[in-house]
Design brief:
The chain is mainly alpha-helical. Helix content is 80%, strand content 0%. The chain has helices at residues 5-25, 34-53, 57-91. Helix 1 (5-25) runs antiparallel to helix 2 (34-53) and helix 2 packs antiparallel against helix 3 (57-91). The termini are far apart.
Length: 95
């Protein structure tokens, strides 16, 4: 069995997601960390790329939803970071 480039891309995506989950379980990373959401987004995107060449609707739906949830996590991270920066700026001001 010979693997195509798109198969290798999909397999890499699977490994990225598995590594993110493993790091979470080993408590080397937290679910709220930016890196967790980025790894999940990247992994899902790589799997989606492979699915575009070897179509599977169920897998495509799963990875699309996985990626959307992960993008939400990235946006949430930056929103919280911005809120914390604004709070720090406001704490430094005298009334």
């Amino acid at each position: 069995m010979q693997l195509s480039l798109t198969d290798l891309i999909g397999i890499l995506g699977v490994f990225v997601i598995i590594v993110a989950y493993m790091l979470l379980q080993l408590e080397k990373m937290e679910a709220k960390d930016l890196s967790f959401s980025v790894l999940n987004t990247l992994g899902a995107l790589l799997i989606i790329i492979s699915l575009l060449y070897d179509w599977n609707l169920a897998s495509f739906l799963m990875e699309s939803i996985w990626m959307l949830i992960s993008v939400y996590g990235i946006l949430k991270y930056y929103k919280l970071k911005k809120r914390e920066e604004n709070a720090a700026k406001n704490d430094g001001k005298e009334d």
